[in-house]
Amino acid sequence: MALLRQRVQLLVSASVNMFSQLHVPISQSIISTEPKSDLHINAICDSFRRGLSWDRLSKQFKSVELNNSIVEKVLLELKEPIDAKGALGFFHWSAQTKYYQHNIWSYCITIHILVRAQLLIDARVLIESVLKKCVEDASKFSVVDSLLAIYKVVVSTPLVFDLLVQAYAKLRMFEVAFDVCCYLEENGFCLSLISFNTLLHVVEKSDKNYLVWSIYEHMLQKRSYPNKETIRTLINALCKEGKLQIYVDVLDRIHGKRCSPSVIVNTSLLFRIIEERRIEEGMVLLKRMLQKSMILDTIAYSLIVYAKVNLGNLEYALEVYEEMLNRGFTSNSFVYTSFIGAYCREGNIEKANWLMQEMEKAGLKPYEETYNVLIEGCAKAHRVEESLIFCEKMMERGLVPSCSAFNEMIGKLCEAGAGDAEQANVLLTLVLDKGCLPNEITYSHLIAGFAKQGKIQEVLKLYYEMENRSISPPLLVFKSLLKSLCQCGKLHEADKYLRIMKNCSLVPDVDIYGLLIISNFEKGNKKRAIQLYNEMDSQGLKPSYSFFFGATMEND
């Protein structure tokens, strides 16, 4: 027993600096023992080894005042698996009979002892108890730090850290669980696949689905590879996000046939990383997946092309594409669309058109994204007729343009000149029938187009349509509406929509005030013009219209 005390003394002394930083109570008497307390400690340990009843223990040690030092020493004396039930008995007896308030240190010693002795149900109960006890602690690592510090003293097992993370998951403390997981790995401990699966399963059932993919990425980085349970959870996560069919379709275009659930999951993770522009991390993970046959070669090549195109490195993407073809892999509509999108963004519409024709000659079908990048690219290059042709072809195939591509096209149409706002409005009716959902930008373009033509009834009709669709009109819509009303001389109506605009928490800018002031001044409503001018001035807006001052002076 003296040898055991000497060993504990040396180990705790070596860790004393660590505990002082963690604010974990370390009784001074663990380091410098007192003979009298040693007798009490020996007697208590012997009594618990003999399995005495709590009544006898309470009578026998009635005069003993328990403190941190005595409790910790007793637990350390009972740290061997053969004494684990005695240690647990002492833990509860001291709390319930002697009213001792256990701290993190005594909890963690007991937890280690129980785990080492495979008394896992009892260990889980204590872990959950100490986590609830420490939930308000400033440091989220207080429990794990204590477990790490006492780990060697109790000659524990890594299983204790798996149980810790599983307990965090059960208590729905997901972010802390993941942070602790990363922290443990920094300290040389890696969780088991069971713990990762437990954490993934619980997180997937919560409202923090985004965390599922961070955990899975971390697993792969640490070379902890998934099993069927992992993949099942991640497929459920994709379903919950409504993205499973999206990735299935992408893989169908790349590979030409249905892929396994594990390939779907791994591809979706790589897509997320690439779309976050963490290209280098994505490529490292892709290489690891290839080494473990977790993804197919043709998919890997296509994703590398996609990643490099996203980075704007078109030259390198073409080199990878050539290598892909030289190795016997055929091209696919996904790769073609990646290149078409890149050329459209560069404004090289001729090259994009050529690739589109080559793609169709190869028997590959363009899909939504192919048409969308062409519609948007042509519109941005002011090639509105070509944009309209691609939109028409797309709808003939039963596909619907994206809202952003459609907005770009009708925006350019409405800018083009007289009559084109009507054509844009007809197109809106067509895409609405196909299921496209317009947004405030769609209506802003159309209303601005009709406002330029002075067609106030069309402007108002579109405004009311926005209201019926519960789309909040932005400042640009009100500006176009007020301009149309002022052009028609409907100044009372303009004041009405100015009030509505303010009620929508939109602040009129100097252009809107200027428009209303000029219109009122020209109509002879000098009093209203001055009122609007003073309102504008009170908001710190300074116009450049010199005649405002003349109007004020004339009124005076």
From TrEMBL:
It comes from the Eukaryota. One of its GO terms (molecular function) is mRNA binding. It holds the Pfam family PPR_2. The keyword Iron-sulfur does not apply. Keywords: Repeat. The keyword Repeat applies. PPR repeats lie at residues 227-261, 297-331, 332-366, 367-401, 439-473, 474-508, 509-543. InterPro entries: Mito_RNA-Proc/Resp (IPR051240), PPR_rpt (IPR002885), TPR-like_helical_dom_sf (IPR011990). Belongs to the PPR family. P subfamily. PANTHER family: OS02G0468500 PROTEIN (PTHR47933:SF23), PENTATRICOPEPTIDE REPEAT-CONTAINING PROTEIN 1, MITOCHONDRIAL (PTHR47933). This is Pentatricopeptide repeat-containing protein. The lineage of its organism: Eukaryota, Viridiplantae, Streptophyta, Embryophyta, Tracheophyta.
